[in-house]
Write a structure and sequence with these properties.
homotrimer; Asp_carbamoyltransf_Asp/Orn-bd (chains A, B, C); alpha/beta; 2 domains; 13 helices; 4-stranded parallel beta sheet; arginine biosynthesis (chains A, B, C); Asp/Orn_carbamoylTrfase (chains A, B, C); Rossmann fold
C-alpha cells in the first residue's frame, strides 16, 4: 500500500479486516516496525478521534509521531497555482507539502471541504496536491469527499458484532443537524459497504442523494421505516445536500432515531462516527442504551489506523 | 490509587511524600513501568507548569504522552444532560470522555471553574463526569475546587526545606489581584496542610473565607501581621470570594508581601504556585531574593505528578 | 557549545559543517546520546520548518521533545522589569524561563522582533533573558536579529552543491513583499557567509542596508544585475528597513528573480528560507525549475538542528 485515501487503495478488503482484528489482539507485536520512522499528522481542521487514534496507532508501531494543527500553529496555505501571493496566504502547498515530505516518512493529512464549490471539493485538490508534492506515502485523515480510516473502523466494528447471519443488513440513515456537514463520512461508508459482504441500504429525505459513484450497488429509499425493517446495523449520520451543494434542505426531527423506531429492526446495533449532537442527530436513549456501538466503533479507529500504517511501512521501507 | 483528585485519594500522606523524595533522587528508576501505556493530558484551559511537568513525569516513567488542548485543538463540549444539542457545543462529555477512555490508559484533565455558579463549580460536575464516563484512572490537573498535584508539590517542598523544628508554622496568605481567580489552589493547599504535620494558619481580608470543609483544623485570622509572626513558610495566593461567589472584594495593596513584612517571620520561606503577577500579588524583591522557593516548588511538580502516575500504574495494570 | 544563538557560538565553522554532513549520512548514530534528556521547544510565534525539523532532530538523538506554542497554549509573558503586573501579561519571563529550566535539559526558543522599536529588538532582550533565567543551554529558533539554525542549514546546502570552484560566489538579494518582515534571516545569513569560504555580495534597493556588524566583509551593491553576474548561489529574501526601522520602502517588482535574470548568473542555484510568497518574492518558474534548492535547503534544517543539539549534549551533560 502506497497511499490510503479510499477503499480503492485496498486490494482485498476482507483480508485487511482480518489483519486488523489480529492486530487488535496484540497491538504491540510490531513495535519495532516503525523504529526511526516519523509519522506527521497535519490537521487543517479540528479533530479529536482521528488525531488521538492516529497518534496512538503510530506510537504502537514504534513511530515517532509529530502532530501539527497547521490552521492554528502555522499559517494559511495557498493551494491555487498561478496567483501572485500578495494576500493572506503565507505559504504555497507546493513548498509546505514538499518540506513535510523531507521531514516525515509517512504523512497523515486532514482537510475538510469548503462546501461552497462542489467541483473544487470533489476534485480533492488539496489531498492530491499533498500526495503529489510530499512524495511520501499519504494517509487521508478525512478529505473533501471521504473518511476512509473511519469507514475501515466501521467495517471492523460490523464484522466484530455480526452474528451467525451470513449477510447482515446494514442501513445508512440520514439524520437532522443544524449545520451543513460534509458528505465525506456517508460517501466513504457507502463505498466500503458496497464492497463488503452485507446487504446495504441507504435512506434519506428527498434531495439528499449522494454522488452515485459512492453508492453503486446500494439500495436507496426515501422511506426510513422501510429501510430499518430487520436492519442489523444502523449507521446514523447527517450530511448536507450533494446536488444542491452544501445546503440544509430539512431539519425534520421525524428522522431522529429512537428506541421506538429500533423495534422494527432486528435488534439493530446503532453506529455513528462521532461527534454526535445528542437528541438532534441521535437520541440519548439509544446512545446510552444497549444497542449503541459508538464507543467500540471509536476504539477501533486505533486499529484501523494501525493496520494502514503497518501496511505502508511494510510496503515502502 | 485509582484516581487522584484530592488528598482523600491518599491513604498515607507522609508515605507518599517520602516516596516522592526517593523518586526525585532517581527519576528514571521506573522507566519501564509505563511501557505501552498512554497518558492523555486534556486541557480545557491553558497551562504551563502542569502541562510540562505532567508530560515530563509520564515520559520519565516510559509512558507515551498525548497532550491535547481541547479548547483550542478540538471543540466545545456539552456537559449538561437532557439538552437538545442544537447550539454551539459539538460533542457531549459522555462520548468525549468515553472515547478518551478507549485511547488512553490514564487520563489527566484540567477544567477551571466558571466562577459564575458556585453550586455548579463545587459539584465538580466536569471532573466527575470524566471519571464516570472515561472509566480509566483519572488525575486532576486542576479542577473547579482543587489542584492536588500542586498541593503535593507544595508539601514536598515544605518537607525538603524544613529545618530541625518538629512542626513548622505554615501560613497561607491572600494577596491582591486584578482578576477573579478560582479558590482551587488555596482550597487544596488548605486541605493538604490540615493533614500534614504543620501548624497551619490562614489569613485573608474579611469576606474571603474559604469553604469550611477545606479549612477544618486551620487557624484563621484577618490580621496578616499576626499570622506572619514566626512563620516558617508563607504561601502567597490570590483568590476570589467563596461566599460572595467569584467576586473581588478588595485589591488592598497592604496585603502585598514585602521584605519588610518578612522580618516578623522566622526567616520565612515564600511560596507561590505560579504564574504570579509581580508587584501586584507578590513583590519582586521577595521573588528575586533568598527567601523565595517558587522555582524549586515548580520543579517539584514533576515528581508530584510522577509519584501519582507511578502509584496508578502499579495499582491498576 | 553552551548556547547557540549566532555564528559567534561556533569556534570552527567548517568543522561544524563537516560534522553535519557526517551526521546526515547516519542520522541515528547518536540515538543514545539524548536518552533521558528533554528538549523543550517554546514558540512565541508560529513556525513550520523550525518546529518540525527541531522536533525531529531531538528525536533522532533520542531526546524527549516537548513542543509548546506559548502564545496559543499558554499566556502572555511580561518581559520588562519594574512594572506592576496589573495588565494583560500573566507571567513574568523571569519565572517562566526559570521553570522551563527546571523541566528541560535544553531549551529552544523562538521570538520574533516587534519591528516597532529597533533598540529593543536589537538588544535581544527576550532571548538573553531566557538564557539568563533558564540557566540551561539555549538554542535560538529565530530571535529578533538572527536565525542561526537557518544559516547553518544554508551553509551546509551551499557546501553540498558547490562544484570544483574553490570560492563560490554567493549573492544575497532583497526581494519584494507586502508585509514588513524581520531582518533576522538576512542578518544571520550575512554573518555566516562572512565567515565562510565564499565571495559574498549583498544587493538591495537604497535604504535597505542591514546593520553593519552583520555585513562586515561583504560587497554591497544597489545594482542587482551587477551582483548576479556569475553568481553560483542566489539567496532570495525580503526584509524591512533597518535604518527606517521596520518600514517597507518599496515593493518594486523589478527585484523579482526570474529565469530571464538567472541567465547572467553561473547557472546559479536559488535559495530561500521559506515560507516564500510565489510570484511576489520569488517566481514560480524558478521555484519549480531545476535551479531551485529550497527543498533540500529545508531538509538540511534537521541536520543543522541535530548537530547543534549533539554538540550541546556532548559539552554539557
Amino acid at each position: 500500500m502506497r497511499n490510503f485515501t479510499s477503499v480503492a487503495d485496498v486490494t482485498n478488503v476482507s483480508a485487511l479486516v482480518n489483519e486488523t482484528l489480529d492486530l487488535k489482539k496484540n497491538p504491540y507485536a510490531f513495535s519495532q516496525l516503525g523504529k526511526n520512522k516519523t509519522l506527521g499528522l497535519i490537521f487543517l481542521n479540528p479533530s479529536l478521534r482521528t488525531r488521538l487514534s492516529s497518534q496512538k496507532a503510530g506510537q504502537n508501531l514504534g513511530m515517532e509521531v509529530i502532530v501539527m494543527n497547521m490552521d492554528k500553529e502555522g499559517w494559511a496555505l495557498e493551494t491555487r497555482d498561478g496567483v501572485i501571493m500578495n494576500g493572506t496566504t503565507v505559504e504555497h502547498i507546493r513548498e509546505a507539502a514538499a518540506v513535510m515530505g523531507q521531514y516525515f516518512d509517512v504523512l497523515g493529512i486532514r482537510s475538510f471541504p469548503g462546501l461552497q464549490n462542489r467541483d473544487e471539493d470533489y476534485s480533492e485538490d488539496i489531498l492530491q496536491k499533498f500526495i503529489k508534492f510530499a512524495q511520501i506515502p499519504v494517509v487521508s485523515l478525512e478529505s473533501g469527499t471521504r473518511h476512509p480510516l473511519q469507514s475501515l473502523a466501521d467495517l471492523i466494528t460490523i464484522t466484530e458484532h455480526s452474528t451467525a447471519k451470513p449477510r447482515p443488513k446494514v442501513v445508512l440513515t440520514w439524520a437532522p443537524h443544524v449545520k451543513p456537514l460534509p458528505q465525506a463520512v456517508p460517501n466513504s461508508f457507502a463505498e466500503w459497504m458496497c464492497q463488503a459482504d452485507v446487504d446495504f441500504v441507504i435512506t434519506h429525505p428527498h434531495g439528499y442523494e449522494l454522488a452515485e459513484n459512492f453508492t453503486e450497488g446500494a439500495t436507496i429509499t426515501y422511506n426510513q421505516d422501510e429501510a430499518l425493517q430487520n436492519a442489523d446495523f444502523i449507521y446514523v449520520k447527517n450530511w448536507s445536500a450533494y446536488h444542491d451543494y452544501g445546503k440544509i434542505l430539512t431539519t425534520d426531527s421525524g428522522w431522529l432515531l429512537t428506541n421506538e423506531r429500533l423495534r422494527i429492526t432486528n435488534q439493530g446495533k446503532v453506529m455513528h462516527c462521532l461527534p454526535v449532537r445528542r437528541d438532534l442527530e441521535l437520541s440519548s436513549e439509544i446512545l446510552d442504551g444497549p444497542n449503541s456501538l459508538v464507543i467500540p466503533e471509536a476504539a477501533n479507529r486505533v486499529y484501523a489506523a494501525q493496520v494502514v500504517l503497518k501496511r505502508i511501512l511494510e510496503a515502502n521501507f
